[in-house]
Amino acid sequence: PAFASPSVLSTVSVAVADATAKLGAGTNESYTLSIPADATAASVTAATPYGALHALTTLSQLVDRDAVAGSGLRIAGLPVVIDDAPRYEHRGLLMDSARHYLNISTIMRTIDGLAQNKLNVLHWHITDAESFPLEVPGFPALAGSGAYTPLLVYNADDVAAVVAHAAARGVRVIPELDTPGHSYAWGLGYDNLTASCPTYRYVSNINNIPLDPTAEWTWTVLQAIVQQLAQQFPDDVVHAGGDEVVTECWELDPDIAAWMRNKGWTDYTQLLGYHVTRLGGMIAAQGKTVVQWIEVFDAGVKGLAKDTVFQVWKGKDELYSVVEAGYRAILSDSDAWYLNCGMNPGCAYSSWQTCYSNEPTPPGTVTPAQEKLVIGGEAALWSEFTNDGNVDQQLWPRLSAVAERLWSPRDVANVTAAEPRLAYHSCRMQARGGLDSGPIAPGFCDVRVF
Predict the structure, then answer these.
(1) pLDDT band, very low/low/confident/very high, at 3 (cuts 50, 70, 90)
(2) Which of 127, 128, 251, 372 is the most buried (most CB within 10 A)?
(3) Domains of the chain in sequence order
(4) Average pLDDT over all residues of the chain
(5) 11: Cβ contacts below 8 Å, ≥ 6 apart
């Protein structure tokens, strides 16, 4: 582009050390961006293509309209040399497409936003108690009866399109198979997949209806789904759920109770452990690492693979307990990074300042070795009160604040200094990416600038 000064940035050279590097856990995303004082050329060096993508994103953010000259473009503060790398390897967003079906266009637009904010993980919470919208060819009734309607499903082409769109932008897609709880919709397609507990006092709360891990038929279906996810999602991680399992429904199912007696088991957390470890073995057999929600850790399940990762939503004390036990952890603190809160009853809205200030490991909380086990964090957008019409308003610009917290060093934490930067970026996302990112303070977006 031509600049207000006589100089013209005519060349951007990009040098990547490993052009074949795989996008996945631990991928090197560092880069160096250099622009000389005359701004005639820019150079990017990076270890992988994904670091180079981040460098080009940074370059695009350095370019803006020349408000002084009134026309043209400029890069201020030349010369520029930026050596940059993320603090955490896992920087993501959980999107829930089960409570409300989300159109592929909405998911792809959100991926565009992730890339603009150097976030690198879309955690796709595809199924839940309310619906099972993923097409499983070998078991057509799962989506045929478990989705809200047969029209609101994700087929293989949809999944491939999302994965390809994300990969081109340096974003991993991690699928979640939320089991054994939150599984009511599975039983709409095949009623013998879920526990039968008609006398359960809270049977109307479908979130409390679990799969039946004692039936081999359940494992036939799970095996098919695990194999499908391994083929459709190239990432080396699969999220196996494990949250909010209410055991009372298991206790009231006479067949499950008889199975427990035959095993000599009296504690239904043993059944949870049986499910978690057997499913984890299936996932590991596909060459994938397992992520579990924190409830599995809290239940004291034995026999978990040591490379299991726990996602912590209950608070930082739980995070510290996980890493003290030698496991890796992802923080999704519901008090700060559940972006649906304020729309959902029962949890309070988090301001962008709260999102920004949510430091995963304040000084003195963990040892240096334990801190290395905190691999990152995710904001979450649960969709009980979220659909295509309000996704952007709930995500942006608060997710930008989360993104900076996960990318930047701990000492980059001044809210006052961050405010103009995030306000400007919110306007930039509106103008460049078509994202409906709201304001964070009084002011306006001058569309001529972006």
Answers:
(1) very low
(2) 127
(3) 11-84 (3.30.379.10), 90-433 (3.20.20.80)
(4) 94
(5) 40, 41, 42
Enumerate the active-site residues: 244
Kindly state the tokens that stand for 276.
């978690």
3-state secondary structure of 92: strand
Residue 84 near residue 31 (C-beta atoms within 8 A): yes
Helix 216-232 with 156-167: angle, nearest 10 deg = 40
What is the C-alpha radius of gyration for the chain, rounded to an integer number of angstroms? Answer: 23
- φ, ψ at 381 (rounded to 5°): -125, 90
- CA neighbor of 337 nearest in space, from 363, 308, 319, 357: 357
Q: How far is CA 448 from CA 63, 66, 70, 72, 434, in A?
A: 13, 10, 10, 11, 15
Burial of 413 (0-12, 13-18, 19+ CB in 10 A): middle
- The helix/strand/coil state of 122 is strand
Average pLDDT value for residue range 68-72? 64
Q: Rounded to an integer, what distance in angstroms lies between the CA atom of residue 422 and that of residue 442?
A: 13
The residues, any chain, with a CB within 8 Å of residue 105's CB and separated by 6 or more, are 388
Contact of 292 with 242, CB cutoff 8 Å: yes
Instruction: Tell me the C-alpha distance between 56 and 61, whole Å.
Output: 9
**Mean pLDDT value across residues 98-120:** 97
